[in-house]
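User: quick one, fold this
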Amino acid sequence: MPQQGIGPSRWTPIALIAGLVAVGLAVALPLAPVNMSMPSVTWPQDTTSPQSTSLQLVSQTPRGLEIRFSCETARAAEGTSDGVLLATINPDQPVVPEQGLVISVLDGRVQIDAVGEGLVDERLSDGACGYRILGDSAGLMVSRDGTDIASTAALPDIDVLATSLTDLPGAGPDDLSVRVLVDNQMASSP
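Assistant:
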C-alpha cells in the first residue's frame, strides 16, 4: 500500500518557483527608483497686505529658506506695536529665540535673531536697501545689499509666518517675500 504525503508532490515545483521569485524581488526592492516631491511654500500671497499664517509641516526645520525684505518694509514694521517684521514661531511663545527666527525693528534698529543667536543688530538705513536671508543644509546667511553680514550653522524651526505688518501699499516681492523649501522626506512613493 503506497504511503500518502511522502515524496514530492505536484505543488513542489510551483512552491520552488514562487520562493525564487520572492527572493529575487526582495533583492531588487532596494534598487527600485523612488520619486520624492520637493514642495515649497511662498508667502505672503499678497505683498501689499501680508497676513500671518500657520504652516502644518511634517518637519518644522526646512530644507531651505529664502527671505527678502527692503528697508522701506523695515521702517513700516517699526511703526507697528511690537516691530515684528517676520517670525517663524509665534512671537508670543517663550521658545522663539532658541528655536525660531525673528526679524524685528525697534528704536531705529534692525534685529535678526535665529536659533538662539543674535545675528544682526544694526541701525536701519535712511535710504533704500535690501536684506536677504538664505538658508540651506550649511546654515543661515544674512546679507544686506549683496554683502554678507552674519551667519549661523543652523536653520530655524518654522511653524508660522507671522508679521505685525498689515498694509504695504505698492510693495513687491523684493519688499517682502519668503520661500520655504519643505523637508517632505516622509511623503515619498515608489
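User: anything notable?
Assistant: The chain is about 15% helix and 35% strand.
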